[in-house]
Every structure is written in C-alpha cells, then in structure tokens.
Amino acid sequence: MEDWALVVGITQYPGISTLGGPERDARDFFKWVTSPQPEGGGVDPHEKTGRAKLIITSTCIPSPPYQSFLEAKPTMEGITGVFEKMYALSEQNNANGKGRQIGRRLYLYFAGHGLEPKDEVALLMANAKEGIWNNHVSGTGWADWLYKAGFFEEILLFMDCCRDYFPSVTPNPVFPELLAGNNIVKKRFYAFATAWGKKSWEREMEDDKQVHGVFTTTLMKGLRGAACDRFTGDITATSLRGYLKDAMQFFFTEQDRKNPAIRKDPIIPGFEDPDFTIARVTAIPSYQITINLPAEFQNQALQLIYGSGQHMQITDLNSQGATLPLTLSRGSYTLKIKGEGGIAKGFDVKGIGPEDVTPN
Amino acid sequence: MSLPINIDGVKLTLEAEEAGTEIFLLDDQSRVIQREVGRLETSQPPGVYKIKLRAGYADREEIVLLEEAPVIKTYPALPFYSPIPLDGTAARIESHAKAAERFTGEATPVVIGNGSGLFLFARDFPRGDEERTPVVENPMHGLSLKNVSGETLIDLQERAEVHHGEEPWAACLIELDPGSYVISLKAPDGAVTDQIVYAAKDWHTQVFVTQRSHLKRIETPSGEIQEETLRLPDISSAGVLVTRGKYFSADDPNARLAELARLNLSSRRQVLAGKLREMLDKKFEQPMLGIYAAHLLLLEKELDAPLFAVVIKNLRILLGNSHPDVEALALVTSEDGSSHIFNTPPMLRASWSLVVRATAKRRDLVPLGSMSAQMADCVLGNEPWLMWVPPGQVKQSTAIVGSELDQDAHSDLFAALEAFAIPHQSTLITLPALIGDVLTERYPIYSKLVGSAQEVIAKVVHWVNTEYGISLEHSAQTRSSSLKFTDKQIETLVDSLALPRYNVEQLLNKSAPRIHAKLERLEREATVKESASAAS
C-alpha cells in the first residue's frame, strides 16, 4: 500500500485578509512529504499516480489578483474533489473484493485562515468572507471520516490556521458515515497550530527572511529531524508531540514569547499509539551549544547527565574557564559537579540551531 | 558510561501553591509522563526529567535530576494574565491595583437605586508597541450601562473618574437595585456589542477590563483597503468578581482562583482537582469561582453529580434563588431544577446554552418577547461571556473581531424551508416528514445538524438530494395551518439552532403560510403540466 498526501496552502482571501505564509509553508511540507524516505515522507510526487496533491493559491485558475471574494480559489470543490476521487477508488477496490483501503498512510496539511465551527477545526476557503463562514473545509471532519472509513491505516493531520469559535456555523458535511477497515490497525496523529478559540501566528523568520507560520516552521524542523528520539532516530507520535509542544515558543518573536496573553504551544490531541513512527532520520541532528558556566561550575570536574532508567547517560567533563562548548542533540540535560552531593543544574537543547545556554 | 538502574524508582512530589495549577512531568525529550492538577506524586527511575507548570497561559519549566533521594518541590503561584490587577498576575500595574483599592473604599458612588453595588474599572498600560497603538486616553471610552430595555442609565465614558497618563485607568462606583443590567460597548464606527451583568442583592459586582487592539479595514474612495488599529475596552475578556463588601482587594487569593477558573473555562481546560475540589465541596466565598467551577465540572467526562449539587446549593445560599447563572446551572440535573424564568439571560454563554437546551422541554423558561428571547437571535460566538449585538443594529461589530451572528433568523429559516418546496423527481417533498426523518436520527447527518437555520436546513436538502435522492409525496399534512413537529424534532431544532423553543416555534409558524402557498403553487403547476401532457 502506498502513501498519499493532500497539501493545501491559501494566502489570498479577498473577503478577509491576505496571509504571508501558507503557500510557502504548503510548498515546504509538500517538498518534505514527497522526498524519499527515510528523510522525507516518501509519497510518490508524480501527477499520474494522483497520490500527492498540492493545492496552493498561485497555481489555481483563475490566479490572483482577484477583484472579489467570489472569484477567489481554491474553493471547497477543489478539496472535496480529492476526497471524491479517493471514494471512487475505494468503491472500485471494494467491488473488486480488495476491501475499502486505498493506501497505507494519508498526510493532510492545511494552512490558511481557519475557524472552529462547533467542535471541528476547519480551513476557510479563498472565497470565504466575514459573515460567509460556510466556505470552509473541516480538516477534522474529513480526517475522522477517512479514519473511520478505513481508506488508510494511518492519518496524519496538520492544521496551521486560527480556531476562532463559531458555534452557530455548521461544519460542512463530509460523506455519510462509513464504518469500515476494522481488520486493519488504524493510527492517527493530529496537530493544530493553536488552541480552541485562539489565533495562529505567522511572522518573518530569521532563517530565510520570509514569512512562515510559527507552527509550520516548528513542524518542518521537527519532521526534518529535530523531533527524533535521540537514541533511535525515530520521529514518533510522542517525540513529535514533545518537540512541537516544547520548541514552538522559540519561533515566536521575543516580544510575543513574553506576552502571557498569547498561547505559544500547539494542540495535539491524544493518539492511539504513542510509538506510532511518523518518520525516521539516519543522522540524529546535533547542535553547537555553548554552555555559560555558573561560577561554581568553572574549572571543575563535571558530569553531563541525560536520559533516565536504562537510557541514563553520564559523561565526565572538565571545565576550563567560563564557557563549555559541546555538540548535543535536542533534549534536557543536567550538569553536575562530580562527587556525592555535588550541585546539579539543568538546561535544554531546544533543537532550533546553535545556542548559548545557562544552566539553572 | 551508563549507571545501574534503580528499579525501585525515586519518589518525586511536586506541589503548586495555587490549587488550579496544572503540573506536567516530562522525560528528557519532553514526552509527557504524567499530568496532575495542584499536586503530583510519582516514583520514577533515576534520570533527568522536566517539570512544567501551567496556569492560564503562564507557564514555568524546570529540569530536575532524580538520583537516589526523594525529591519534594513546592512552586509559588504563576503570573497568569488577568484584567484584574491582582497581586502576582502578569498585567498587575501597581498604580492600577492601588487605584482600584482606593476607589472602592473612598469614591462617592453614582446612585441609581439601592440594595446592590457595581464597580467598573477599565485600564490600559504600555505593551511595547506604543508607536503603532498608543495607550488610550480614556479606558472607559465607548462604554455605558443600560437597563434591560436598552435605555442608557450611565454613560460610563462621561461619568467615570479618569486618570490619564502612561498607565491610564477609569473607574465608576454605582449603587443600584438588584437585577440584570447591560454593559454596552459602542465602537467608533457605531457598532454596538452588549453583555449582561447581574447585580445580586447585598453583593457588589466588580467588572475589570483592559484594552484590546482591533484591526479595522477601511476602503478609500479609490478602492484601496487601508488598515487602522483601534484599541477598545475588551469586554469579551472581562474579569468579574462578586464580593460581600464594596472593597476591592488586590491580594485576594479567592479572586485569583476565580480568574484562573474563568481562563480555564474560556479555553475549556478541565482543571478541577485536589484542593480546589475539596474547597468546592466545603465552602467558597467568591461566588464567581463557584459558578465557573460548576461549568468546569460539566466539562468532565462524567459529571460528579453530588459535588455539582453541593456547589449549586452553596451558590444559592450565597446569592439566593434568582441569579440567572446559578439557576441555569440548576437546570442541568433536571429541567425542573429551577423555577426561575429567564426574562433576562445569564452572564455566561455556557449558562445560556443550558437554558436554551432546557426550553426544549420547558418552553416557558424563555418567554416570547422577553429580553432573552429578543437577544437570542443575535448572540455572538464569544466565550466565556454571553454577548450579542442589539437586534436590528449592525451585523458585524468591530468590537468583536472574528465573531459571527445570525441576525435575521426568520428570513434565514424561511429561505431554507422554502427550498424544500422545490419539486424533486417529479413529486414534491413533504417538508415535515423529511425534516422529521432527518431530525430523528434516521440519517447519519443528524450529528452534523448544528448552526444557523439556513445552514442546517440547506445542508439537509443538499445531503438528501445528493446522497439519497429521496422522493416523497406531497401529503395533506403540508396543507395544515402550521408545520407540525414532534417534541423530539423540536428538541433537535432547539439544540441545532441554539434558539429557545418559543423562538423556534415562532419561526416555524411564521414560515408555514408562505411555504404552503409555494407548495400549492407548485402543485398547481404540476397539475397543469400533467393535463397538458395528457392532452397532447
């Protein structure tokens, strides 16, 4: 069974406002998801297979600029058309006695303006307008439907959009409920840029001086290796969740990070299998870390400790001077003055690049 | 080098001084091991762990090394964000805290009644982006206090004492009759947003607001869209306290807990545990804490009915039997749980949802023509406060960016119902039968039936047409003077449309004659066609 991907990034909303990041972010996700495994998602990018679909503003017909929200693309039909094709293929498989499953894994990535109609998370289509909120596609609605229908064994849903709460907007319907695929072990992983009723954020990133979603920036770093387990190289549901929850705050501006009114970590609902392997990296990323040593740690015999239980690692070090340069993978560490009762202080390697850290 | 494993584990005890604080224990790669509220006790293998605490949107992290000795840690309260200048909160401004304390103690109140008190305190402070949006001149701008008939009682912008400067504030102390009032915000473009505040007898209600920036898009004569940033009182995130005396105290720990509960209700985080739960079971002195906590209990997977009953009982002891939010909560366990009639709505949106749901069985709870019934069609989507745009006024308010409302529910419903009169496969759809089938869970789309009337019915039509192609005969039932629905169907409509039962029935009945007329016209046309066909 093959893997599939539907990647959507909408920047032009004539009836709401223009966004800077979604198209660029969608391209980046698509690039990753169609790169060969193990470093990428391994979805076949060739158009004839129809398994990798990228829907972004600039390649829509008509393309921007738009005179009115009425002509803006993509609209719901563009997205639901992909699901209809999946449905048709599933019907065909079923008719041929192969069951309803059409693939191993489906990646769904949606970036743009969004909202929360009732309790679902939806991406607003380009022809949405303030007051015309029904032009949306429910990401959670479709992901749940596909999961229940057993079209895939694994569903991954990433949504980089706001979740303004609109209790009186009906989530657009998906297909009539289809319960199938009970003979396969199904797994899913959903991640949302922000919490219920909250905004997602985009900004110009230092790396490339381009606007990106804060969530997608973190996600792509994570999928490209920063979120891997430092002992196995596996990016699992739990390791990706841990990375996203932990690291996203560091992709906000300094000012926003200090703003207690802004939610700075994504929402990742519970998942069935904590060891669900999403990707794998062959080279576990490590980062140049400069540790600013507290006075009592300078010129001392030290121990660097990380992991726990069977995985606990202790490395002896000798510090000379006020700083200690090390190359470390992402995670939490303790620096301890060697000997019984020695002072211990902790620090984090965030997995976002070279860092200066001060244990405390 | 690896150390031998201590298979017995090391005991770790973590305690937050503030009861509503969430505590997470994570491994050294930030994977969650355990989550508790208030206190976390565990035994873990030696190693490096991360501890994370969260209150509101404030958090704190610490890395801990577990060796052999048990570890016990206690954490002080976190500085979460609150519009109330409480000690230890992120937006506490010394001058604001002092001003609120002094004002409630010394100011001469504006007297418009007696038996209850209301204190309004609006403030602003530098946020680091003053070049774009400087602090406001008068933090009370655009605010007024109205009675439930919509008449202005006090223009707060004019009557409040205003302190200008880098940390401006405005305050107004009012003596008034117990009951419901409306805090109304008028934006510079004239858009109005209303919110209820209930003044309980012998209690003082204190309302605190900060300012919030709103992006306003303006179209120039040349068609160019320009954006302008406005700062307006943020009534949607107001902090509300209810106190015995008129004094505000910035160091009130119960007020902190109430604010934390409000933030958790706003973000639907279920955090009632430990000491906070114990406190609810015994006694609480801040009624808003009890009201928020009761709603948080309703978010739990399984309702702790005995504790819920105790909270309601305690709230009634404190506030009496006429507080709309308490009485709304009392409807949860039984629609007969309260004899209160909701002529005016409760303060919290979650409370209003409980009332609306209960009207399915007790339509008298929200009488037709009451303020509640009028407001019901114009409710905004905000949480936790119930807010609305006055009926007949502007459809979108700049004061509530991102909010949505269905203003003309009747025309929406009519347009949607009318769609059923379209001939379908040479016959006419029988409206009540079709809606009835759909609403009584015969079809799976039932679970999706939420939203405005138009959306709900349009989706039913679309779904039935595309998925089932149902052809139903036009029966005599459609010719009756009103559209007949079973109680079950009405309950579903009440739930789906988020409208009280009387409102739903009124909409259906108003629409019936027009729909019948259309159905009859279509039938006549069909008969003419048949005759023409037979003749040829």
Describe this structure in words.
The complex is a heterodimer of chains A (360) and B (536). Chain A has 360 residues and is an alpha/beta fold. Chain A has helices spanning 22-33, 76-95, 139-149, 214-226, 237-247, 254-258; strands at residues 3-9, 52-56, 103-111, 114-117, 122-124, 136-138, 152-160, 164-166, 187-192, 202-204, 211-213, 234-236, 277-280, 287-292, 301-306, 313-318, 323-328, 331-337, 344-349, 355-357. Chain A is built from 6 helices and 20 strands. In chain A, strand 4 (114-117) and strand 5 form a beta hairpin. In chain A, helix 1 packs parallel to helix 4 (214-226). Chain B folds into 4 domains: 10-75, Immunoglobulin-like (Sandwich), CATH 2.60.40; 94-243, no CATH class; 254-362, no CATH class; 409-535, no CATH class. Chain B is α+β, with helices and mostly antiparallel strands. Chain B has 14 helices and 20 strands. The interface between A and B is large, with 64 and 65 residues.
Summarize it.
The complex is a heterodimer of chains A (360) and B (536). With 360 residues, chain A is α/β, with parallel strands linked by helices.
Strands of the biggest beta sheet of chain A: in what spatial order? 2-1-3-7-9
Terminal Cα separation of chain A, in Å? 49 Å
- The best one-word shape of chain A is globular
Tally of helical segments of chain A: 6
Quick one: CATH class of the largest domain in chain A? Alpha Beta
The number of distinct structural domains of chain A comes to 2
Oligomer: heterodimer
Radius of gyration of chain A: 23 Å
* Coarse shape of chain B: globular
Succession of helices and strands of chain A = EHEHEEEEHEEEEEHEHHEEEEEEEE
Main sheet record of chain A: 5 strands, parallel
Give the proportion of residues in helices of chain A.
10-25%
Q: Number of helix segments of chain B?
A: 14
Counted up, domains of chain B total: 4
The percent range for strand residues of chain B is 15-25%
Proportion of residues in extended strands of chain A:
25-35%
- Poorly predicted runs of chain B are 394-456, 466-482
Find the count of extended strands of chain A (DSSP E, 2+ residues): 20
| CATH architecture call of the largest domain in chain A | 3-Layer(aba) Sandwich
